[in-house]
Amino acid sequence: MNTFAQIYGRAPEGEWAAPGRVNLIGEHTDYNLGFVLPIALPQTVRAQARRRDDGLLRLHSTREGGAVVEVAVADLAPGGVTGWAGYPAAVAWALREAGHEVGGAELSLDSDVPTGAGLSSSAALECAVALAYNDLYGLGLSAPELALIAQRAENAFVGVPCGIMDQMASLCCRAGAALHLDSRDLTMRQVPVDLAGAGLALLVLDTRVKHDLGDGAYAALRAGCERAAGLLGLPALRDLGPADLPAALAHLPDELRPLVRHVVTENERVAEAVAHLDAGDLAALGPILTAGHASLRDDYRVSCPETDLAVSAAVAAGAHGARMTGGGFGGSVIALVDATAAGPVAAEVTAAFREAGYATPRTLTAVPAEGARRIA
Ligand code: GLA
Q1: Residues at CB less than 6 angstroms from ligand 1
Q2: Atom 1 in ligand 1: which residue has the minimum CA distance?
Q3: Contact in structure between 15 and 50 (CB atoms under 8 Å)
Q4: d(Cα 41, Cα 117) in Å, to the nearest integer?
Q5: Neighbours of 77 (CB within 10 A)
Q6: What is the structure's pLDDT at 137?
Q7: CA–CA separation, 259 vs 273, rounded Å?
Q8: Cα–Cα distance, 171 to 100 (Å, whole number)
Q9: Res 59: pLDDT
Q10: 272 and 296 Cβ atoms separated by less than 8 Å
Q11: How many other CB atoms are found less than 10 A from the CB of residue 359?
């Protein structure tokens, strides 16, 4: 008998999986309505689920111990459910807020997406649940529509003012490709990324420094960007091109200049990276990644000593380039390496961490995997 049947005494109606992600380039651009380039990871959150007609949402997570959290869907209100169960509850709430007449369900959740590592375990959880609800209640929503529901769940119920990248990555990425997404209108293109064919590998180095976007720093950065756009008379920083950057910077108070410089240059780096991928020159991404890290470290200031060390040690060990990925304040670094160098580069970074007295980083190799889907 599987876990669901053990918990709920009957079989699930189906099982849905949604992956975590790493972003190749385009960080802190999504809420500025700019461009991002994530890939989905093979690691997923899986939701086994069955519809309930009594309006109760019952939640179980194999990762979070045995207890079943139970809540009446009609009673859901922002902040009313906290911890891991808050994410699936938030999705049910956001669906109802958007006018979809969804009721109860019982869910059993499992995951191999590392948590607190900047790999979007929360978005994967939201998206697995959103997809399950979509099928259980026959809502017929598209992947981008579900992504917007999941983002609203996180913004308004969980209380993290994230952009749209992670939910779109989890729902819309395709195996073998990066998702080139315009965060303003959600137009997207699958850009082939054949790492193995190019003799390359993408290392993910989880620094084990807890990444937590709920502590206000992320919200403050987002607010700073929105203030800058307002002062410049623009709908969003996405509307500022590199040619207009010097004049714009001269117009802004000191504290906002580095934020704006990062966003404008980062959008350019996404365009450059896509051009190299389209030309089949994957190794040329390396210097773009490293330049992106410098911008996040020096201008946006969301790196930390551990991510900085992982980047410099990886590059010193022969990586084509490396950068922190995700929101920052810890989390993971990606390093583009020759396939044959993956082991040695990981070993060098681990040795540098030991030397610095940091925790041993967790290492995985990322291949662009398939986005969220029904698996049973
Ligand atoms: C987090 C957020 C995303 C995005 C990144 C930074 O992952 O959830 O929306 O803003 O940080 O690029």
Answers
A1: 27-28, 30-31, 162-163, 165-166, 213, 326-327
A2: 327
A3: no
A4: 13
A5: 9
A6: 98
A7: 21
A8: 19
A9: 98
A10: no
A11: 12
> Which SS3 state, helix, strand or coil, does residue 243 take?
helix
Extract the tokens encoding 267.
């959008």
Give the C-alpha separation, 357 to 104, whole Å.
48
Ligand 1 centroid to residue 173 C-alpha, Å: 16
d(CA 374, CA 144): 16
H-only helix segments in 165-216: 165-172
Query: Pairing state of beta strands 362-366 and 321-325?
Result: unpaired
Atom of ligand 1 nearest to the CA of 222: 10
Q: In the numeric block, which tokens belong to residue 22?
A: 């790493």
Residue 201 · residue 339 · CB < 8 Å: yes
Q: Can you give the pTM of this predicted structure?
A: 0.98
Helix axes 305-316, 342-356, angle to 10 degrees: 140
Which DSSP helix (H) or strand (E) runs through 129? helix 121-136
Query: For the stretch 331-357, what's the b/e string if a residue is b when 16 or more beta carbons lie within 10 angstroms of its beta carbon?
Result: bbbbbbbbeebbeebbebbbebbeeee
Q: How far is the CA of 9 from the centre of ligand 1 (A)?
A: 39
Q: For residue 213, what pLDDT is reported?
A: 66
Going from the first residue of the chain to its last (376 residues), give the mean pLDDT of each consecutive group of 10, the final group possibly shorter.
88 98 98 99 98 98 89 97 96 98 97 95 98 98 98 96 98 99 98 98 96 81 98 98 98 98 98 98 98 98 97 98 96 98 98 98 97 98
Angstrom distance (rounded) from CA 353 to CA 362: 11
Catalytic residues: 166
Q: Tell me the C-alpha to C-alpha distance, in Å, between residue 57 and each of 151, 157, 188.
A: 20, 16, 34
Within 8 A by CB and 6+ apart from 329, the residues are 209, 211, 212, 213, 215, 217, 218, 302, 304
The CB density around residue 374, as the number of other CB atoms within 10 Å, is 12
Measured in Å, residue 162 CA sits from the centre of ligand 1 at 6
Return all residues near 212 (Cβ < 8 A) that are at least 6 apart.
116, 329, 330
